[in-house]
Amino acid sequence: MAGIKLENLIKSYGDTRILHGIDADIADGEMIVVVGPSGCGKSTLLRMVAGLEAVTAGRILIGERVVNDLEPSQRDIAMVFQNYALYPHMTVRQNMAYGLKIRGMSRAEIARRVDEAADILELRPYLDRKPRQLSGGQRQRVAMGRAIVRHPQVFLFDEPLSNLDAKLRVQMRLEIRKLQRRLGVTSIYVTHDQVEAMTLGDRLMVLNKGVVEQFGSPIELYERPASVFVAGFIGSPAMNFLPVRVEGDAAILPNGARLPAPARAAGEATLGARPEHLTPDEAGPVAVEVEVLEQLGAATLVHGRLEGTQHEMTVQLDGVRAPEAGRIMRFAPGQLHLFDAASGKRLAD
Amino acid sequence: MIENRPWLNLFAHLALILGVAIVALPIWITFVAASHEAARMMQAPIPMLPGGHFWENLRATLFGEGLSGAETAPVWRMLLNSLVMALGIAAGKIAISIISAFAIVYFKFPFRMAFFWMIFITLMLPVEVRILPTYEVVSDLGLLNSYWGLTVPLIASATATFMFRQVFLTIPDEMLESARIDGAGPLRFFWDILLPLSRTNIAALFVILFIYGWNQYLWPLLITTDRDMSTVMISIKQMLEAAEQSPQWNIIMMTALLAMLPPVAVVIAMQKLFVKGLTETDK
Ligand SMILES: Nc1ncnc2c1ncn2[C@@H]1O[C@H](COP(=O)(O)OP(=O)(O)OP(=O)(O)O)[C@@H](O)[C@H]1O
Ligand SMILES: [Mg+2]
């Protein structure tokens, strides 16, 4: 088993720089989720670790070994692709066995490993089928099986669940997590779905335009987002942001309401409040003019505007509530975040 | 159309029967002529029903000296020549073009696009256009009257390379990447993955190229002077001209019938793959 180390990893296509120096230290057996908006370079990063893209500058270490110049097959990794990339003309068994066969493993050992993987993934009944005779979820499992049989040091996943329907996605998400725990293989998992990221990762790397915005545990990212970008990306529904003026201990909202400032600052700043951290309170300082309600059953989302301004706000209430549109609701703030107005960086508490 | 009207059905069937009759009539007459004595074919009206000399004519055509009085080889020999040429052209073209398509699609090498365009340009140079220089080369190499001379110049062409290039471009990149992670080198990838995935296309191309090779006329005519090397297509033409007396229709028609069989056999044998190869899109 082995950890992964990325040292100032840079990728350029011609003059366009896609990744601007990524550093990461991934412990043995850890599962890292790389998350970010489309086009931020997630796949590129993963493919560099896999050896499918050349490294422009920097180093990649797997275990103690610098793998920059090694072929993918020599890196002791396994990758699960978004479209699975199963060989259409081979049966499930042959698909899983192909890599082992090339390595010159004995037939008995190949059979043992394929059977073992088939048991783990409940693929036994399908071993002699071709990929096109399988459902999406089953194909996904075959792709996983192909990774497992290699007993690699590292698993790489590139949005492996995005072709599945919502229900199956939740189920497979849990399976991947359990499997990874059970096998204890160091993993990098790429997704743009923040729920997937929060539930799967030991740690999350939030990538924005080829730069790491924050790298930490899901709770750390949720409770102490390092920037407006991370704060808006992690958590659903997304955090509310309001421009404020900080005077001493108070943050003054655009409509003049005063809140306790969560950090030391002076002048303009951005205040962040999660929808679930605002609680209804007749005497609360935050007044919201209700516009639309979304009843989710377990919760109610209130969409509206900060009273007297055009700033949109979302509040999440427990259970079923029915405040009327047009009414003013007042809230008391719980946890608040303060960010620099210009750079978007978190201001020290 | 799921309409079910009797008169419409009748009309459709009549139209189809008429079409089949138009196509089948010449073949039927060929067959009938091949089963009568030579003399019977010269009397009007020509017979429309088969006679009783089919096997006799078949034996005379295959093993006799073809046409009495003419300088042609027995027809089995010419069928064999045609077969070797057609198979050689089909197999050679497929082998060369699949390898060059592999190189063009999957490898980055200097002047890759230049080579691509060079191959492309040969599309504009079918045998008929380059026939004199090609003859010169083949004759200098001493390949006249040989199977090599018959096949090699016809193998070089670009159409098949293009087709394989298109086929390879439809195979997702991830397939190659997956194979790389599995440790397959270029040749293994070619052998284990590309070839099986192109199976139906190879079959379709084989059918087309076999018929192309079988029907070659001008080139074999030019380079075979030895009667033991001539092909069946040439011999039919020669039989028509060679006869000083009136043409021996029974033998000529039997030869034509025999010449039709191999392409038909290839089409029937490969029909399923052939249709798949032309229509299948998902990889
Ligand atoms: N071969 C290439 N040549 C030039 N630019 C490229 C190439 N491949 C990717 N890019 C660019 O690199 C950037 C990052 O691409 P990448 O595929 O890593 O994004 P991603 O984060 O995986 O996005 P998504 O969530 O949509 O998959 C994109 O802006 C893309 O246009
Ligand atoms: Mg991607």
Automatic annotation (TrEMBL), chain B:
The keyword Signal appears for this protein: no
Transmembrane segments: 7-31, 83-107, 114-135, 147-168, 189-212, 249-270
UniProt membrane topology term: Multi-pass membrane protein
GO cellular component terms, A-Z: plasma membrane
Function: Part of the ABC transporter complex UgpBAEC involved in sn-glycerol-3-phosphate (G3P) import. Probably responsible for the translocation of the substrate across the membrane.
Family the UniProt entry places it in: Belongs to the binding-protein-dependent transport system permease family.
Name of protein: sn-glycerol-3-phosphate transport system permease protein UgpE
Taxonomic source organism: Oceanicella actignis
The organism's taxonomic lineage, starting at the top: Bacteria, Pseudomonadati, Pseudomonadota, Alphaproteobacteria, Rhodobacterales
